[in-house]
Amino acid sequence: MIRNRVWIALALIALPLAGRTLWHYRGFYRPASPIQVPAYAEFSPPQPPLTEAAFESREAAAEPEGAHAGPQKLVLFDQSHSNRFSMSELRSLTTALSAQGARIEVLDSSSAFDELGLEGRLKYASSFVVVAPSVVFSHSEVTAVEDFVGRGGRLLVVLDPTRTGSGIDVFGFLFLAPSDDVSAANQLLRSFDLSFSDDYLYNLLDNEGNFRNVLLRGFGDHPLTAGLQTVALYAARSVQTQAGTLLLSGDSATLSSLTDAGGGLAAAALAPGAQTLALGDLTFMTPPYDAVADNARFIHNLAEYLLGGERRLNLQDLPFVFSGPVSVVQSDDFSLQAETLVALRAMSVALGPAGVSLSFPDDAPSDGDLLVLGLFEPDPELGDLIGPFDLVLPANAEDGRLGTPEFGSVNPAGIGFVGLARADGHTTLILLASDQAGLVSLLETVGQGLLSDCLFSESTALCQIGEGVGFGSSEPLGFDLGFEETFND
User: Fold this and answer.
1) How many CB atoms lie within 10 A of CB 320?
2) Which of the chain's ends, N or C, has fewer CB atoms near its CB within 10 Å?
3) What does each of the 489 residues of the chain score in pLDDT, given as a tens digit?
């Protein structure tokens, strides 16, 4: 009896253990097979198409010696409008410019307080580059840029949707609400039939590792696109033009973030006349992106474009019309007196920013830049110098008036004539008046930069230098000013 109870007790203890064991038992142990891992050593991530980094230096080395002979061209970069970039980011472009013989100058915020400013510096620049501005240009600055482009200067405006944000005031502590880059750029480009959209381009199907890194293969017919097959841009704004040339265009899958629509979208465009270029991306110029696809070739083409224009100098570019020392040549009827020396001193000071000086040779040199001072009286020694302006001097006219191709026939009393001629790379500036006092007054007018008060053509001007029938009487000037006088009762 007692033995049965023992077996029952053992059974009660063993049965739960056996049940638990059978419930959780999964059979005999088998060692796990090795975990399969990717063959990392054989894995090759996708790489963007690269160009040779030495493209620019190789092109420069291939050019023959003396290829950059001639006047050095200057490219002016704007940093005076709270531009959101640093010059070091443009090293690939500035290197390409320097390799082609250009000189680089930066217009920073302190330039607004010097004597030249933007308007003055454009007088001697060949090209003007504006990158990511956040402050609008003043009306006078816009007018100066338009005039600069109209006379052969080239303008490049570059935006980048990653270069936006708030600004601060000139004292450095108050956040402002500045105009965004699109507004600032479009204000400058309005008269050139170019505009940026406040967007970025993207492509979900064909891109360089990211949907915002678009690959563009549609190129307009222009030397800027020579040798290009693919250009990779990174967060580029789209550019529009009505009558200009679309340079870098995407395919139908390249869309705008503003509308999520595509077709005909471009990231770069030339204005009619090809003197102004709008470009929607800055990042592609910075390392390492400047070595992707044909970006290096495009940067090289940009440098050639900026240096390919021919600026036409006119009287408004004084004193930067001269390229070297200026020899003063005066007629026999004009003598150097105390008043004359004071006026010449003012002219010498005016030429200071251009880095040129005055000299007084006994005879007119056969070459070089000249400042010719003479009277309306015929002078055989000055005849060849005055000849290019086709003037009819008062002594040679039946009515005793001064004849000019640009302004017609005028009474010479109280009037000074200013003429600018260029030949064989040299400049001749001619100042003529009726008498010595008038010529001294005209010399002071030119030296003090007051030609804006004169009546202008591109290469000649008529200035008031005293009282006379040409300005101070009711006798007409002999040419139409293009407006009618109105009087209030």
Assistant:
1) 21
2) C
3) 666 777 777 777 777 777 777 666 666 666 667 777 666 566 665 666 666 544 544 444 344 343 444 457 899 999 998 899 999 999 999 999 999 989 999 998 765 446 678 888 998 899 999 999 988 999 999 999 999 999 899 999 999 998 876 444 444 444 444 448 899 999 999 999 999 999 999 999 988 888 999 999 999 999 999 999 999 999 899 999 999 999 999 999 999 999 988 888 999 999 999 999 999 999 999 999 999 999 999 999 999 999 998 888 888 888 788 877 888 887 766 666 656 677 777 778 777 777 778 877 767 777 788 888 888 887 777 777 888 888 888 888 888 888 888 888 888 888 889 888 887 778 888 888 888 888 888 888 887 777 777 887 878 888 888 655 444 443 444 444 443 444 443
Instruction: Sort 141 into a burial class: Cβ within 10 Å, 0-12 / 13-18 / 19+.
Output: buried
Q: Which domains does the chain have, with CATH numbers?
A: 55-62+70-307 (3.40.50.880), 316-464 (3.30.379)
- Residue 302, C-beta contacts closer than 8 angstroms, at least 6 positions apart: 93, 96, 156, 224, 277
